Amino acid sequence: MRPDFSAQAPDLAAFRALRRAAGLSVVGEEATRIALRNTLHGVWLWEGDQLVGMARLIGDGGSFAQVTDVAVHPRLQRQGWGHRIMARLMRWADDTLPSGCYISLIADPGAEALYERHGFALRTGMARRVP
User: Fold this and answer.
1) pLDDT band at residue 50 using 50, 70 and 90 as cut-offs
2) For helices 29-37 and 12-21, what crossing angle results, to 10°?
3) In the sheet where 41-47 sits, what is the strand order?
């Protein structure tokens, strides 16, 4: 079965399962529920009833947005799905968000080339987790 894009947002279990499979950290159910509810836009790649790829935009939708939760199931990695997901997400951003909206992301080491293909430039940033 070939994966296909759908507007169907995942439930908590599917979202958390893909994060786990792709090697991303998995936060608690309540945090995941809040995160999904506050998504500006999500791109969801499904293979039947299994979520196999995704990316989300979060933020205020005016002056700031951030790309997050970019994940592709390991058996589909290195096949161009990450690029297709990002292309869809950036097309929505370009068509929907106001001119000048600042879009940022934090990339894992080694993923910079994917994001550079979509107009992102390396910047210095800092981050902190809530204890």
Assistant:
1) very high
2) 100
3) 4-6, 41-47, 50-59, 64-72, 102-105
pLDDT band of 12, cuts 50, 70, 90: very high
Q: What burial letters (b/e) apply to 35-60, b meaning 16+ CB within 10 Å?
A: bbeeebbbbbbbeeeebbbbbbbbbe
Q: Is residue 128 part of a domain?
A: no
pTM over 0.90: yes
Q: Is 40 within 8 Å of 101 (Cβ atoms)?
A: no
Domain housing 17: 4-116
Question: What tokens appear for 15 in the block?
Answer: 């979202």
User: In CATH, what number is assigned to the domain containing residue 103?
Assistant: 3.40.630.30
Residue with tokens 């994917």: 114
